[in-house]
Amino acid sequence: MELKNKEIVQKLAISDKTMYRYFTKMVGTNPKNFMAINRARIALSAYVSNSKSFSPYIYGYYDMSHFYKDVVKFTGQKLSAQLT
Fold first, then answer.
1. Chain Cα centroid distance, residue 37
2. Parent domain of 76
3. What is the number of domains present in the chain?
4. What pLDDT, in 10s, does the model give residues 46-63?
């Protein structure tokens, strides 16, 4: 998950613009949005499975409020609704 666009482009030997265009066409969203959704999904799964020992820092969030905002953006629901 930590690969940057620049690293991907170098490995594939294509331009940034080409990679962005192909990625968006195939996945349906841009790479940045895709990675944000994927990070929120993985972190939310970890939170739901064990909320007491959950640490947002492990998933690259600055704090719980940063994680909370992404959960609301991703699911459209408050974090408390995810536990019920």
1. 4
2. 5-83
3. 1
4. 998 998 899 999 998 999
